[in-house]
C-alpha cells in the first residue's frame, strides 16, 4: 500500500534508541496549540511513496540502523496510516529491525491492533495531565490517550512517555508528579521532557493561526528544575530512565 510521507530523516538520534531512520507521515487528527510540525496535519499533503520505495530507502542504510538503532515512524500521527504500515513493518521485522511508533494516540481499531503486534516500542506523547487543559490544547478528550496507554500496558508493550513543556501550561512539579504516577508500569522505559520552542511557528496553516499558542520558549532553568524533580520521582522504581532532551527544529 502507498503511504503519505511528510519528510524523511536518514540518521536521527532523537526519536528512539540509537541511530534511526525516521519517517514522518502526513496527517494528524489533533490540532495541538503548540505543534512544532503543523505543516504535517493534512492527509492530502505530503508525498506519496509506495511500500517498495520506502522499504528500499530504509534498506540503503540497514547496516547502520541495525547497530542498536532502528526505524521510527512519526508524524503527523502515524497511526492514521496504520493499515498501510502493517505490510512494511512485517518486512522490516524479518530483516531484524527495531521498530518504534511516535504517537499522540488514536482511538483503537483493528488496523492499529494488528500493527501493535509487530512494534517494539511506542513513544507516547501525553500533552497534559488535566482533562480540561488537555481538551483545550488538543481538541480531543484525554480519555482516548489514557485508554491507549492501558492497552499498551495490557499488551506488555515497552513504551516511552513524552511531554512538551510549555511555560505557564504544564511546568509545575505537581503536574509532573501526576504524569509520572499516571504513566507508571513495569513496561515504561523512559519519561522524556521536551522544551517548547517557536521555531515551527512559520509552519502553521493560515486558517489555524488564531488557535496557535504563542508561548515563550521554555527556559533551561525550567527544564533543569523539572528534570531534577523527575529524577527524584523515578528513584522510587528501577524501570524508568529519564533523559534531558535538546531543542529540535
Question: Describe it for me?
Answer:
With 249 residues, this protein is α/β, with parallel strands linked by helices. The chain has a single domain (3-244), classed as TIM Barrel. The chain is 32% helix and 21% strand. The chain contains 8 helices and 9 strands. It has helices spanning 51-59, 62-65, 82-94, 110-116, 131-138, 142-154, 173-182, 220-234; strands spanning 3-12, 20-25, 47-49, 70-74, 99-103, 121-125, 159-165, 188-195, 241-244. Strands 3-1-2-4-5-6-7-8-9 form a 9-stranded mixed sheet. Helix 3 (82-94) links the parallel strand 4 and strand 5 (99-103). Helix 1 packs parallel to helix 3, helix 3 (82-94) runs parallel beside helix 4 (110-116) and helix 7 crosses helix 8 (220-234). The longest helix is centred in the last third of the chain and has 15 residues, at 220-234. The chain is globular, with a radius of gyration of 17 Å. The two termini are 30 Å apart. Residues 242-249 have low confidence and may be disordered.
Short description:
The protein has 8 helices and 9 strands.
Describe the SSE topology:
Blueprint: E1 3-12, E2 20-25, E3 47-49, H1 51-59, H2 62-65, E4 70-74, H3 82-94, E5 99-103, H4 110-116, E6 121-125, H5 131-138, H6 142-154, E7 159-165, H7 173-182, E8 188-195, H8 220-234, E9 241-244
Parallel strand pairs: 2-4, 4-5, 5-6, 6-7, 7-8, 8-9
Antiparallel strand pairs: 1-2, 1-3
Helix pairs in contact: 1-3, 3-4, 7-8
What is the total tally of β strands? Answer: 9
Order of helices and strands: EEEHHEHEHEHHEHEHE
Unreliable segments of 5+ consecutive residues: 242-249
Major sheet attributes: 9 strands, mixed
* Overall outline: globular
- Name the beta content range: 15-25%
Q: What is the end-to-end distance?
A: 30 Å
**Total discrete domains:** 1
- The CATH architecture: Alpha-Beta Barrel
What is the CATH superfamily label? Answer: Aldolase class I
Strand line-up across the major sheet: 3-1-2-4-5-6-7-8-9
| Quaternary structure state of the chains depicted | single chain
The radius of gyration computed from the alpha-carbon positions, rounded to a whole number of angstroms, is 17 Å
Structural class, by secondary structure, is alpha/beta
User: Overall pLDDT, averaged?
Assistant: 89
- Level-1 CATH class name: Alpha Beta
